[in-house]
Amino acid sequence: MDIEKIRNMQLGSIEQSYDKRDTILYALGLGFGADPMDEAELPFVYEGNLLCVPSYVNVLCHPGFWAQDAEYGIDWVKLLHAEQEFKMHRPMPATGTLRGEYRVAGVEDKGPGRGALLHQEKELFDAASGEKIATVRSTLFLRGNGGEGGFGTVPAAAEPVPERAPDRVVIIPTLPRQALIYRLSGDWNPLHADPAIARKAGFDKPILHGLCTNGIACRAVLSSYCGNDPARFGGMFVRFSKPVMPGETIRFEFFEEPDRLRFRAIAVERDSVVLDRCSATLV
Ligand SMILES: C/C=C/C(=O)SCCNC(=O)CCNC(=O)[C@H](O)C(C)(C)COP(=O)(O)OP(=O)(O)OC[C@H]1O[C@@H](n2cnc3c(N)ncnc32)[C@H](O)[C@@H]1OP(=O)(O)O
Question: Cβ atoms within 10 A of the Cβ of 188, count?
Fold first, then answer.
């Protein structure tokens, strides 16, 4: 891995417009609209009074899959999305144009054979007004790298969720074709669609996008704690602890604390914790 090239990378700002079709397609990729008679979720998938799912900030103004570029020396087939955090400064417009300022915040070396974490940050602004919409941090686990040094400040590790019975449980099924729908919102990584690439990465079949699971978690928080009102959603952190397979049922376990929610998610069919150490804030 060429640490200096990664440290000095300049991606500048990226503008992206999204229309009602994009907003709806993103929500469909998270399973919104599974029950067309569910009027609470309908505004996310119907243009009558369209609402944008807050987690769309994770997707927009993305600099593309630059890690695939051989000049950085990243073993891109083996990399996995490790953590994602986003904080809303104001609700997402249902449609509009955003400007993203993106930077690589650091590389955390776990040592030879143990991988490395690549920390990225993005600030999102409304392109017309200049108002800040969201701050987004995402971390990739570079399983095929490590032992090559690092730079930047390492964020403190998130705490485990409480060891007690959850205050609320939300169960959301996914579809076997969930990743094939979700990828149309812009994440074309073949790991989520091509069985041959998935096998090269060490999986039996294509796995679900981390940001799809993340968006489904946002859906669970919206429905159970925000009355499906995006203005009441403040932000969220998740650690992707195990891959989710499209078609699995996800059980979210919420622990209520005075200033935030803590939660984790379990793939029911394998009894495997797929999101851990998570938190969400409400407005
Ligand atoms: C471009 C791709 C896009 C995608 O969407 S991929 C799909 C979404 N992502 C996933 O499905 C990833 C699911 N997560 C995993 O499978 C595992 O998670 C990992 C393979 C990433 C790591 O697991 P392991 O190699 O077993 O790690 P360890 O031995 O438990 O821990 C080694 C060190 O790494 C830290 N760590 C482990 N997992 C994570 C994580 N997800 N995010 C950040 N840090 C992590 C630990 O704490 C520890 O650190 P310390 O050595 O300092 O104690």
Answer: 11
Say what the pLDDT of residue 154 is.
84
The answer to whether 159 and 176 have CB atoms below 8 angstroms apart is no
ipTM, interface predicted TM-score of the complex: 0.97
Query: How does residue 153 score in pLDDT terms, banded at 50, 70 and 90?
Result: confident
CA 274 to ligand 1: nearest atom: 13
In the prediction, which pLDDT does 10 show? 86
Question: Is the CB–ligand 1 distance for residue 243 below 6 Å?
Answer: yes
168-282 CATH fold: Thiol Ester Dehydrase; Chain A (3.10.129)
Q: What is the 43 CA–ligand 1 centroid distance (Å)?
A: 35
Nearest Cα residue to 142 out of 184, 107, 178: 107
pLDDT of residue 245: 98
Domain with CATH 3.10.129.10 in the chain: 3-152, 168-282
For residue 210, the SS3 value is helix
User: What is the CATH T-level fold of the domain 3-152, as seen in this structure?
Assistant: Thiol Ester Dehydrase; Chain A (3.10.129)
* 103-145 confidence digits (pLDDT tens): 999 999 999 999 999 999 999 999 999 999 999 999 999 999 9
Residue nearest to atom 37 of ligand 1 (CA): 241
pLDDT, tens digit (0-9, with 9 covering 90-100), for 248-260? 999 999 999 999 9
Question: Cα(153) to centroid of ligand 1, in Å?
Answer: 18
Q: Say yes or no: CB of residue 206 within 6 Å of ligand 1.
A: no
Q: Under a CB-based contact definition with an 8 Å cutoff, are residues 109 and 116 in contact?
A: yes
